[in-house]
Amino acid sequence: MTNTLHRYGTAESFVDDYIVFSLPAKSKAAGQKGDALAAQKRFMELAAEYKPVSLGDALKGGVLRPTKSTSIFGHWGKRNKPSFKAVLDGMTKAGTMAAVFDNRAAAEAFVKRIKDEDLGLSVNISSSIENAKNCCKAAGIPRHSIAYSLGFEQVGDNVPSKQAVMLSTMCGHGMLSINFAQKMISFVRENRRSPDEAAHAMSRFCSCGIFNTTRARRILEEARIGVK
Description:
The protein is α+β, with helices and mostly antiparallel strands and 228 residues long. The protein has one domain (3-146, 155-225).
């Protein structure tokens, strides 16, 4: 089970959203072999080669992180430059590590590479069922299991704030409020910020680094032009 299952949207809305996690066993007694941290660093280094949207260390964050600035202007501008190096250099403890991809080719190639590397880690894929099945097929491995999210009560495809729900739920730990997402949509609609600027600002509040700025840009643009 993963918090990313609660990402809201139709299956088609995940065309550019693939999250590949690695998790170690909690101890050698639980079946962990070798150095789990070294294996996860290798996992993340390999992921970086396939040009992900983000790398996420659940303990330290992703490629975009909060600013210490108390000014609203601290959320915009040059500070929005992603840093894979910050994630890789900051890994000090084995845990939940993730790579987020925005295209099928890269996701499938990475999953195949991880299968070939045989790092001794548990790996899962969070996306639409079809996307995950394609990744497994490309890697030549059978599907192990599937976990579903049953959705949100009384939230349908025609709710006025559908795009805000889609943006907010890209942080499964609840660090992106609906109000914040609606504010970013308003900024984009009013041409006060571009979809790219708003997406990057939102990404910095996702504590585990699995926010997908590519999908967010698309959702914000759809909200701007009035796609329902």
